[in-house]
Write a structure and sequence with these properties.
This protein is an alpha/beta fold. It has 10 helices and 10 strands. The protein is 36% helix and 24% strand.
Length: 261
């Protein structure tokens, strides 16, 4: 895991800085003034009910969604500067989605090398070396020649993580990476993410996996209705939330049987 929590506090070594971020879709305001800062090596888990703006926040970080107003600075690049060269800015950001987004007509190795060669201009030998190293990191060295449809959902997601790692990102964004997986496949993906955290990777993770957040996060950030309601160490936000909205959400996700009664 990373350093002690600093999300939301001004720090000299912040790698992600978000200030007064707003995002609207038509007349619907989804993000209503988000402020947060993430230090290098920090793991921030973003939790909250569906529709609270979590995924939109993550997608604004790498400009998959264009913010309506506010600023987003990642690894020294102002993502919201109209003059920013977005391809350069995005190179330091890895993204793992709910869906695996693998090229189905390409082998695992080809999926991991194509962006390296086209974007980073690595030669074939170097790209394949990096790809094999990252497949080993996610425990899939033996799948180098497999096609995506020969893999389980959990294996495909681990390939997607290895693909993102092959671009040498400074920050990894995970948008509910286990939500599309069968329950028995979730553990392998979370184990890979735990190892990345232990290695010091800066990670922003939108997740419903509260045990993972409790064990791995330096900071848990609870969102509801487009605002950050509460943030802090998991031992406080999850175990001893200060706000009623946080307590209500956690009571539902931690005690789903009682929530349905």
């Amino acid at each position: 895991m990373g350093s002690p929590s600093t999300a939301g506090a001004g720090t000299g070594d912040a790698i992600v800085e978000i200030s007064d971020l707003h995002k609207s879709f038509g007349r619907v305001e989804v993000l209503k003034g988000i402020d947060m800062r993430v230090r290098r090596g920090e793991v921030v888990c973003i939790v909250g009910p569906s529709g609270s703006g979590k995924s939109t926040l993550l997608r604004c970080v790498n400009l998959l969604e264009q913010p309506t107003s506010g600023t987003v600075v990642v690894n020294g690049f102002d993502m919201t500067d109209p003059d920013v060269y977005i391809d350069d800015a995005r190179r330091s950001i890895g993204m793992v989605f709910q869906g695996f987004n693998l090229f189905t007509h390409m082998s695992v190795l080809e999926n991991l090398t194509i962006a390296q060669r086209k974007v980073l201009k690595r030669d074939k030998a170097e790209a394949e070396r990096v790809a094999r190293d990252n497949l080993a990191r996610v425990g899939l060295s033996e799948k180098v020649g497999a096609m995506p449809d020969q893999l389980s959902g959990g294996q495909q997601q681990r390939v997607a993580i290895a693909r993102a790692l092959s671009m040498d990102p400074a920050v990894m964004l995970f948008d509910e990476p286990t939500s599309a997986l069968d329950p028995e496949l979730v553990g392998d993906v979370l184990s890979v993410m735990r190892r990345l955290a232990e290695e010091g990777m800066t990670m922003l993770v939108v997740t419903h996996e509260m045990q993972f957040a409790r064990e791995v996060a330096d900071t848990v950030l609870f969102m509801d209705d487009g605002v950050v309601v509460e943030q802090g160490p998991p031992g406080r936000v999850i175990a001893d939330p200060r706000h009623e909205r946080t307590r209500s959400f956690l009571s539902r996700v931690l005690n789903p049987v009682h929530a349905r009664e």
